[in-house]
Prior knowledge:
Helix content is about 35%, strand content about 15%. The protein is α+β, with helices and mostly antiparallel strands. The strands form 13 sheets. An 8-stranded antiparallel beta sheet has the order 22-27-28-29-23-24-25-26, covered by helices on one side. The protein has a 7-stranded antiparallel beta sheet with strand order 45-44-43-42-48-47-46, covered by helices on one side. Strand 15 and strand 16 form a beta hairpin. Helix 38 packs across helix 55. The two termini are about 90 Å apart.
Amino acid sequence: xxxxxxxxxxxxxxxxxxxxxxxxxxxxxxxxxxxxxxxxxxxxxxxxxxxxxxxxxxxxxxxxxxxxxxxxxxxxxxxxxxxxxxxxxxxxxxxxxxxxxxxxxxxxxxxxxxxxxxxxxxxxxxxxxxxxxxxxxxxxxxxxxxxxxxxxxxxxxxxxxxxxxxxxxxxxxxxxxxxxxxxxxxxxxxxxxxxxxxxxxxxxxxxxxxxxxxxxxxxxxxxxxxxxxxxxxxxxxxxxxxxxxxxxxxxxxxxxxxxxxxxxxxxxxxxxxxxxxxxxxxxxxxxxxxxxxxxxxxxxxxxxxxxxxxxxxxxxxxxxxxxxxxxxxxxxxxxxxxxxxxxxxxxxxxxxxxxxxxxxxxxxxxxxxxxxxxxxxxxxxxxxxxxxxxxxxxxxxxxxxxxxxxxxxxxxxxxxxxxxxxxxxxxxxxxxxxxxxxxxxxxxxxxxxxxxxxxxxxxxxxxxxxxxxxxxxxxxxxxxxxxxxxxxxxxxxxxxxxxxxxxxxxxxxxxxxxxxxxxxxxxxxxxxxxxxxxxxxxxxxxxxxxxxxxxxxxxxxxxxxxxxxxxxxxxxxxxxxxxxxxxxxxxxxxxxxxxxxxxxxxxxxxxxxxxxxxxxxxxxxxxxxxxxxxxxxxxxxxxxxxxxxxxxxxxxxxxxxxxxxxxxxxxxxxxxxxxxxxxxxxxxxxxxxxxxxxxxxxxxxxxxxxxxxxxxxxxxxxxxxxxxxxxxxxxxxxxxxxxxxxxxxxxxxxxxxxxxxxxxxxxxxxxxxxxxxxxxxxxxxxxxxxxxxxxxxxxxxxxxxxxxxxxxxxxxxxxxxxxxxxxxxxxxxxxxxxxxxxxxxxxxxxxxxxxxxxxxxxxxxxxxxxxxxxxxxxxxxxxxxxxxxxxxxxxxxxxxxxxxxxxxxxxxxxxxxxxxxxxxxxxxxxxxxxxxxxxxxxxxxxxxxxxxxxxxxxxxxxxxxxxxxxxxxxxxxxxxxxxxxxxxxxxxxxxxxxxxxxxxxxxxxxxxxxxxxxxxxxxxxxxxxxxxxxxxxxxxxxxxxxxxxxxxxxxxxxxxxxxxxxxxxxxxxxxxxxxxxxxxxxxxxxxxxxxxxxxxxxxxxxxxxxxxxxxxxxxxxxxxxxxxxxxxxxxxxxxxxxxxxxxxxxxxxxxxxxxxxxxxxxxxxxxxxxxxxxxxxxxxxxxxxxxxxxxxxxxxxxxxxxxxxxxxxxxxxxxxxxxxxxxxxxxxxxxxxxxxxxxxxxxxxxxxxxxxxxxxxxxxxxxxxxxxxxxxxxxxxxxxxxxxxxxxxxxxxxxxxxxxxxxxxxxxxxxxxxxxxxxxxxxxxxxxxxxxxxxxxxxxxxxxxxxxxxxxxxxxxxxxxxxxxxxxxxxxxxxxxxxxxxxxxxxxxxxxxxxxxxxxxxxxxxxxxxxxxxxxxxxxxxxxxxxxxxxxxxxxxxxxxxxxxxxxxxxxxxxxxxxxxxxxxxxxxxxxxxxxxxxxxxxxxxxxxxxxxxxxxxxxxxxxxxxxxxxxxxxxxxxxxxxxxxxxxxxxxxxxxxxxxxxxxxxxxxxxxxxxxxxxxxxxxxxxxxxxxxxxxxxxxxxxxxxxxxxxxxxxxxxxxxxxxxxxxxxxxxxxxxxxxxxxxxxxxxxxxxxxxxxxxxxxxxxxxxxxxxxxxxxxxxxxxxxxxxxxxxxxxxxxxxxxxxxxxxxxxxxxxxxxxxxxxxxxxxxxxxxxxxxxxxxxxxxxxxxxxxxxxxxxxxxxxxxxxxxxxxxxxxxxxxxxxxxxxxxxxxxxxxxxxxxxxxxxxxxxxxxxxxxxxxxxxxxxxxxxxxxxxxxxxxxxxxxxxxxxxxxxxxxxxxxxxxxxxxxxxxxxxxxxxxxxxxxxxxxxxxxxxxxxxxxxxxxxxxxxxxxxxxxxxxxxxxxxxxxxxxxxxxxxxxxxxxxxxxxxxxxxxxxxxxxxxxxxxxxxxxxxxxxxxxxxxxxxxxxxxxxxxxxxxxxxxxxxxxxxxxxxxxxxxxxxxxxxxxxxxxxxxxxxxxxxxxxxxxxxxxxxxxxxxx
Length: 2042
């Protein structure tokens, strides 16, 4: 019997503390005053009685009741039921009534206030309703002044009312106030009582939110409820605990948290708490708490909180069942004839049904948990553990995060302790859990059966709470209604403490006597049902049947080993190793080995021992990821059984060879295995011997047993389980005598102790290494990576392995101490849990050090003798083929090449041989990192695997951990990962013979060779001797990084150097120092007149290009500096030997010889430069002003001959003839960054348009203003800002004057493109709105494909051959003989007349003054620049020039995109997430978007120059990165010469090398540039060219391999072409005038380490020599006859391809781009007796192993090679292939007039789309800055005409999809699918036109465009007439909006009927009535389609809710087919005007 209430407390307002400024409560009475012995009184109770704080109130409030929960120090919960009311308090006001101001935080007290007072009951029972009644009676007696003593009521309540335990009878009692009450205890106290709280919680939050809360509570997350009701907080917390049954919440539980304790929310431990909603602002700062708002039903989960959810199948089942219970009508809601649906259950029963579902959920979640219980003690109390790993594995949920956390939580540990014993009191959950599997199978997802089973459980739960069905009429006195509002309410009386105590004592005495007479029937213990096993036996048997063949092979192999048939065993050994991936086969192996071990066959021969150990290692390695450790448990005793004899008295056991696996360092494994063996021995202790099965099971029968049986070592099967035996022993325990009990306890304790000793010895065997000097390998946990080098920002993924570590805390240098500590911790853990006595534990601890010492001494002899064994034969290290000049730096380090994220070569889903992993060695040479070896798979071991990349391409090197790898005998835990920018990845795991020192030396050497101190230490400069000046390194990163440094550098440098004086460093003399080596072809270093250039190792990229304003005066006589040429002398071999690359000053002599005229840089020496010859080819003049003809408009200026104007520009640049050199030198260069002034690079042969390049314009930043001031103070004063601007304007005028844009006007100009795309569109990366897009066509056999390839790119003159087809999108035509559009003829004339230029022919004056928008006029020069620079330009100073702001790819974005691209194309681990595919990863890189940006801007330049005849200037960034990409690609598209091999070389030499792309800086050649990161600017250009080659395969002489070849070698550092950052540096370091055309070596020579081949210095020489011998780079589809066309490629993402250079590899040769290596790798082996393969022979080609292009020749190459062989056989000298190819007669060309309509349409289609993209770029730049980007306003639209999605380019309409509904933007007409809506860029093309003149002009132009003439309809194939389509949506998307009428109207809302004023626009073109928030708003809030209007009329009466002062007749109604719109105008006249305007449009 238990007291109903332990304490009664009266808490009141503390008026004493109120004077201090903060209200608080105090305990006035507490009864009893003395604490009970069993229940102490809780301190701080007053906080929980008034959680919101003790504050006075100025108003009367109704009494409130709620229950708080208190937790004592023993974690027992006590319930505090509190009833609060208010008493009247007379107060003196703090301030007079006439004073209005208040002190901050102070409360103004009125004369009459109300103070709170609480009466509370504290109880250990949770009878909330009884507490409410009792406190209500006390309050009623007080408030109604009843004639009842409160002392009697309180005393009776505390002393006389006792409640029986659960299962007891109903209690009826009275507290002495005329009341009658009853109380019924539940049947089972373990099952929580929920009343109706669970149903209320679901009603408040919903199903999903409650399930989220449920998962958060199970996974130990913090949960916080908040509500405006304290009772709701308690009910919600109670409901959450109820649905957690059978688990018990073990953390902090405070349903009602007082405000004074809010800091408790910051506790790090999990909790369930509740706070009042008034504290909502404070809880918003909590970042790791799940917050549930009970009032609004909102659940807030922090973004960074990863909340694990239930497994999908369990969650779906629970959600379905909850839906059936809470919404029974949902499943029949869509039925046409729904059956009668049962109404939902009543609230109490509904509550129990929900709880029943959660009990079923737990039963399914823990199904089979009893099969994973391990009992280690039975007496005196059962001790049971749970095998978590086995349970997860058997359930197939090893990777489930939710179940991992649940099983590891405190609640589940309590669950195991309470429900683990097999003989105890059971409840309904035990029955549900035992039958859940059968129940779920019978239900079969049928709703009727589910509901029936749920209701059965709910009925039992209801009966548990209400066991007495007979109702009892209670009588509870209550106060009158409104009693609390009485004016005169007496104060709560003081209570006589003595009287109360007397009543309590009397009641306790009577209750004790009554308890002695009454007996309560206690529930009986019973056997707990075992339930289903965790695994599915049937499924396992099916697996066994499927693996029967593998098991037979395994048995045969193992038998052959033990029969010493080694050769037979080795035949099947690889197959056995592969089969060990199966868990069934691994278990079979342990069973087979155990069988042979019991047959006394443990002593093995050496070969037998090696094979058995290898099988063990492979099984352990494959089983490493399993948490159940079944294989390790079974192999543990076998490791101490199998052995071999090394010599007399020395035996080596198998455990010395399997110690490296991490499982032996896992404390979890040792504990689980120990408990398993203890259970087996405890079981044997109580099992009679005659019940053991004498026979051993068959092998196959043993395989089918559950893993729980397999892991119980030795595999003997018994009738009874350990739990069944334990249950029987627990049952008979009370009947045993004391002696028998003590004997049982002693036997069990001895069993545990003996096993602890046994396992201590086993752990010594497995933990002490064979060679103690090497330490313990698996001490610490495996980390994902360690020792990562600082090569660059890592882009490779981390392959972390969550391995569990040992617990060693000591130094790894003391292995013995680490082992002792490990074993000691294990012993403490298992002995304390197993109940081992303290004496036994002490003796065991004393024994451990001695055992370890003895074992170490024994292993010394074993280690000594094992080293005498013959070494295991390993594959021979294959040396790689070396290039000429390449030398080995590090000899081969034996290791394994591991597979990475690429599936090729692994023999997986893609098939083919398993080439990886491969065993071999990794080599480091002066040029490459090479791995060469053979596959570990015996089926593919005859092939040679090579993977290599240049050392300078390395971007990241780090250590990574690796998991188990098949076919590798050794256990490898770490690997070195090398990633290269050539899209190659090496994962090298070194052999055990390679120690850690060698590995670290390898890593350091790789880093040293990757980042040498100078470029002259790289492979390309092999044999070059350098001076100390070249090798010096500067630690200073940026000289002008701060204002202080800039000022000191700028102001003080002039005083240290005067004109004509030499630098002090150059005049020093020392001893000359020369080392042997081959000199350079030009062994001189030219010295510029500028002070000595800082070395290339400077990390600041711009330091080489700074303009020196105090430079030498070259024009003054006698000061012309000469150019010295000191020789290159340095010891490069010092660097190669690993020593520092510094040179002693005493060994250096700097020669100061007299300068000769021959050493001076002159224009004559530069005449042979490719870019100068290209200038002359283009007719851009010749060098020197004296040679220049007066009629030539351009000249090759020598103003930068000595690089004193711009150090990053070439020495010779093309400028207009009218521009003087002095103007460029003093003014023009200062207007651009780094003085990169506009230079002409190309001229259109027909339109004479110019292509110019320069850097961005100078901005006026702080540095710019400071520098300009310095220039003004130090210069002669002529170079002012005004002069610069004037000279810049003159330069632009010269360009405009030399651009004959008017004389070559083309009717197909860009101005006419306004008919295709209006200036309001924006470039979105997809085809323009409302237009057709290119469709995917078939292969080369398609006529459309051929037409697109051959004709689509044609431009210029050929564009007018088929004028009838002007648009592809609408398939409409215009008359070919009609007058041209007004836009075509007038705009250029108007602009020319306006700017004072000559009016072109056919033009006329625009006297009306109407001007086209700025985005559509025709300019002579278009300048594309940065948006930030274009804004500050005054366009009125540059007539006929248009400045177009545009976006460009910044270098930082390119770097980030490239890192992602490498990670996507060459991932370090396979992709496991099904939602993350390869193409998704590539899309996330945004690499193709950057390529698209380059192609679109280059395409715009092509259109402007070729069609319109305007010049184009690219003025971006520093003018060397994005500018080079666009300018070079533009020339490829325009000039066919650059599409040849020689022309492409000239283009690269000109635009990339001469114009100063910073190759050294962007490629990180030296250590100074290490931190900048690799920037693939040049690679992006090559990728863009590759895209063009793909689309125009007939227009290029070179093929894709040519581009890949350049892409590989521009960052390989094999050739000297792509070094240094400018032509100036190349001249200074002597590489500019190297005779690249002189062949200095033979390609045929191959280096093998001793070869005397000479290294070729130039990439172009290398390409020429290869091209001379073989058509490797030639494109046989090249058609020179059509090469004069202008290419216009598609730039949509759908038309771009991922370059196969990024994803393909060649494991046969390593790299196909070093041809000597390829030749060496593919030539026949000398040791092979068979001859080479004949051409007719067949062999298998593997895509990742062989180079398909090399192995499978096309017909052209095969015929050419066949002709060469035939000539050789005839003893003729073979002719060169090129000569043979040119002699071939080309087929007869088709007449150009024979063109089909289809081909012409394709041509026009491509040209039209290309033009539209150009217009988008122009208009986006002009209009994008004026209006902000707006999102689309999509609405559902039905398409009945052929319309394509503007995003994915797929059809929206078709024969099958007629009337298909898609999404259409109401603003710009953008069309897309529903699924594409979220992917569309947020760039709506709507532009608001406000001027009426612009509207008229746009309307006029559009009328000309959309005019359709039937007579001009073309004839296509057979004379069929093409239908004319007119799509209204297309028109609405293209034309500008027509504002017929606009103004403010009041509109009535549809939902809340409120009136709001909107700005309405009537559009007669789009046929819409749109409305906006305001007149200035550009985003439409909605629109009314005029076609849907049914009626429009004035309203008869004024509508309610209208604004004040509204005229009654100003209302009008507009009725549509959807709804009725109500409007209000300003007046009746305005309403009539709106009605008339709308009716005119109908």
